[in-house]
Amino acid sequence: MLLERIERIPNTTDSFRLEFEDGTRMKCFAENVADFSLASGLELDEEKYAALTEAVSFSRTRRRAARLAASRPISEGELKTKLVMKGESPEHAEAAAARLVSAGAVDDAACAESIVRRCAAKGYGPAEVRRRLASAKIPRELWDDAMEGLGDQTETLDRLLRARIRTGDRQELSRAGEYLARRGFGWDDIRAALRRFGEISEDEQ
Description:
The protein is mainly alpha-helical. Among the domains are: 108-150, Orthogonal Bundle (Arc Repressor Mutant, subunit A), CATH 1.10.10; 154-204. The chain has ten helices and three strands, in the order βββαααααααααα. Strands 1-2-3 form a three-stranded antiparallel beta sheet. β1 and β2 (15-20) form a beta hairpin. The protein starts with a strand and ends with a helix. Residues 200-205 have low confidence and may be disordered.
């Protein structure tokens, strides 16, 4: 396969366009150009052309993985899943994610801690936090340590409860309890919060 033309893609720093004699066009990257000594007029046999195609594909996967990891904390499992969903091969997704883990750019434990902090700041309870850890594909063995970041949620429960109750009648209290359950709090903690609210209300009277 004869490489007829190679040119840098405008407004990019390391992307190139390759044009082959049969009309095939391929986007590649600076490392591919260097690794394969690409230049106009270069003849690639079938094996070398296949190797170039594979290398270009992996370069694209690595760049996509790096962008995903830079956008927000992400687990290794979620990163691999997203790469495959975007069309990357499972093998390339696995290898690209492993590289970022090795470099410290992807850290499941740090990702878990970040999820717990965000949930705590938004007033979510333990069940919702666990659901989000599972959704983010955080390994189960990391959950317990991360969940310690929730701390005591008594004040959070009381604040959410006060914001939902106006009259304090039984129906309103029931709706408030269901609301807290939907936010991931357990019924034992919810009942305790309702008792505290009742005691405060009695004191105010």
